[in-house]
Every structure is written in C-alpha cells, then in structure tokens.
Amino acid sequence: xxxxxxxxxxxxxxxxxxxxxxxxxxxxxxxxxxxxxxxxxxxxxxxxxxxxxxxxxxxxxxxxxxxxxxxxxxxxxxxxxxxxxxxxxxxxxxxxxxxxxxxxxxxxxxxxxxxxxxxxxxxxxxxxxxxxxxxxxxxxxxxxxxxxxxxxxxxxxxxxxxxxxxxxxxxxxxxxxxxxxxxxxxxxxxxxxxxxxxxxxxxx
Length: 204
Ligand code: SAM
What we know:
Blueprint: H1 2-8, H2 14-22, E1 43-46, E2 49-51, H3 54-67, E3 72-76, H4 82-89, E4 93-98, H5 101-113, E5 118-122, E6 135-140, H6 149-153, E7 155-166, E8 171-179, E9 182-191
Parallel strand pairs: 3-4, 3-6, 4-5, 6-7
Antiparallel strand pairs: 1-2, 7-8, 8-9
Helix pairs in contact: 2-3
The structure holds S-adenosylmethionine (SAM).
EC number: 2.1.1.77
Main location: cytoplasm
Function: Catalyzes the methyl esterification of L-isoaspartyl residues in peptides and proteins that result from spontaneous decomposition of normal L-aspartyl and L-asparaginyl residues. It plays a role in the repair and/or degradation of damaged proteins.
C-alpha cells in the first residue's frame, strides 16, 4: 500500500507514509476484507458507508501535514476511524464526528482497543463541534453540496477547511483558508465520496 502511494501517486511526505506503515488498515475493516485490506480501494463498512481509498486518505492528510506540524484537527465523517487514526499517529489532537450510531459505536471500540486518544462524537458534523472549536484544520470525508458555514466559523486564524464539494457523483476537493476576515479558496482534484448528510449538507 505504501509503495503504491509513493510510486503510483507521488505521495512524498515521509511522515504520512510512516503513519500508513504504523496504522494497520485491516483492523478498521471487516475480517472478510482482511486479505485485500492493503489494496488501494474503498471497502464497505456497513450502513451503506465505506472506508476511503488509501490514496484519498493520504491526499487529504498530506494537505494537513504540508501546512501544520501540530495542532487540533476536526474530522467530519469518522466512518471506520482509519483517517482519524492516521492523524492521531501523526501527533495531531483529533476530534471526529459521525452521524450513524452503529459506525460511531464501532469506531469507539476500535479507538479504545488501540488506545488512541481521539475525541469522538455522535451527531451532525455539518454543524461542526463548537465546544471543541477553534480548529487548525477541518477535514470532511463525505461529499457536500456546498460549504457548511458552521465549519468555516470554527476555523482558527490561519486554519483550513478541506472538503469535497459537488454533486452526489463527483466532487472537487476544495481548500478554504482563513486569514483574518478573509477566506481564500483553492480548487484541487476530483474525488467520489458518499454524501455528507445533515442540516448544512444534503437532506436525508
Ligand atoms: N473517514 C472515514 C474513514 O476513515 O473510514 C471514511 C468516511 S466515509 C467515506 C463517510 C462518512 O461520513 C460515513 O461514515 C458517513 O456516515 C459520515 N457522514 C455523512 N454525513 C455526516 C454528517 N453530517 N456528520 C457526520 N458524519 C457524516
């Protein structure tokens, strides 16, 4: 998996690659996927959701490591917990929100088993996590129809919101960088995420 990220996708940040070596992806998927857990593909995790493709996780993580050595990160869409575990391994203070109770419970168990100090919350992540704000970076791992304002409001000075925005088929990974009262927007690559469902996302 790490060679694919390095050679095929050009992920060059050694910190990120080392985190992928340390965090065992098979522990975040059902045993029926263990033989293929290190392939570059998403897998079902139940409740019609997926663990993201490793490249996608590495891509989003690299945006964070490029700009922040340390800091507090909010993830929206805990899913399997793998992305949060990678960020935790990198030394960030990680908060993560999941809207599906079953996935929230599963992630809670795996974080406890692996002794990962990750703050996990059940709820609608389109509203952020105001009690824990502000965040140096917010990473959304589900596709949004537009940018949730609550998330922009919970960014620290010099904070970045990394979020796939588009329709339910394809989204453009966007970066919103807050500097004072100004938000700078950068468009990056195209991805295909499951929908971000909530008050400031897609309707149920
Ligand atoms: N980051 C995950 C991982 O490492 O496995 C993959 C995330 S999966 C592609 C998207 C997740 O976002 C799903 O678990 C879904 O339930 C969750 N989600 C969708 N809308 C949400 C919302 N408003 N708040 C919190 N989680 C949400």
